[in-house]
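Lecture notes, unit on protein representations.

Consider one protein chain, 178 amino acids long.
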Amino acid sequence: MNCCATDASFAESGSEVVKAVSGSREGPEAVIQRCENCGGQSRPVSRKTVLLMLKPEWLEQAITGTYRFCSARDCPVVYFEEQDSHRFTTDDLRVRVGVKASSDPIPLCYCFGFAESHIRDEISLTGTTTIPERISTLIREGLCSCESRNPSGVCCLGEVNKAVGTLQQASSDDPRKP
């Protein structure tokens, strides 16, 4: 199954990818459910994704329920149940959550293993990066499994492209560059 959009317009924005790829229930008529911990916006995530990310000792608590993903960088909550009080934090997961990490390694692409440092290094060496194109090629070949490997349950390409923009801007602003 190809879980990711390959259209460049979808790759630019994580929120568009969520709607286009995951069949998000969120739309104009949807009620925005905020994280009770930080008040930030959240998005639906499958219980399967939650279960695949949790450490074994937390699995029983997530067997039922409907979950949401909080992407706020400074909030330790990753998943919370819509109708109940179950919450899971970064410490409860088996993987590092890139959107919540502030120091290396900062994972960006969970399917193919790319981290922010890979993009930073390539930009530093060549002035650009081919990583988004490489990921897109692999997606077109049907090799991604973001719904199972990415803690947010959606395609990583939006986060990859956002990181590329930020890192390229930082590189061009670097006074050490000629």
